[in-house]
Amino acid sequence: LLFLWSITVSIFGIGGLLGSSGSRYLTVKFGKKKCLLCNNVLMIVAASIMGCSKIAQSFEMILIGRFMCGVSAGLCVPLHHQYVGEISPRKLRGFANSTSSFFWSLGKAIGQISGQRELLGSQSLWPMLMASCGFPALVQLVTLPFFPESPPYLLMHKGDQEGCKKAIRQLWGEGQHQAEIDDIMKEKATMKNTKILSVLELVKEPAFRWQLYMIVILTATIQLCGINAV
User: Fold this and answer.
1) Residue that is last in its domain, among 147, 177, 209
2) How far is CA 112 from CA 51, 129, 174, 196, in A?
3) What is the pLDDT of residue 135?
4) What's the pTM value of the predicted model, to 2 decimals?
């Protein structure tokens, strides 16, 4: 039982690792918006599987659902940062990117509170608690089709300049947006001369060694600073 419990808890992280590893390939091939929409479907399926696990009397369904949730979360984190950053005007980009950290912490807090035995953590209601992750995914699945694809993706990967301008006007309103388009073109020119490194190449590259050390240390020590307790 202890082994099964440990696997159930940790399999979320394994799925997250796989999901985040495949995010770059998927976003380049299909675009941020399509990936987010499909990712929402994956989360809803995972929530449904976990929500029905008690009726089916199957702990395997919880394992599968947790794994799928991890894959979905691993895809969602980089996708959210990229999409929100790219559809935001330059003056609001920093604020928009910081919302992910805020909502990440808020989601943890809501989960901790909802999991109390007086609320959804009771013996009869815990399947609803596990299935609740499908609600935000459903909201995004319904609302996201009204948003355009990321302008940088349309221009840099699809070469669709008219589609990029249309998306910018839909997001930022009418006006002169040529400076933003020029910035995207400069970024496209820079990327042509920049080699995309794999994870293994990044680890082996001496030029990025200290930056990598800093990120690993910060990510590891943030778990010890009491943020989860807060």
Assistant:
1) 147
2) 18, 10, 43, 39
3) 92
4) 0.79
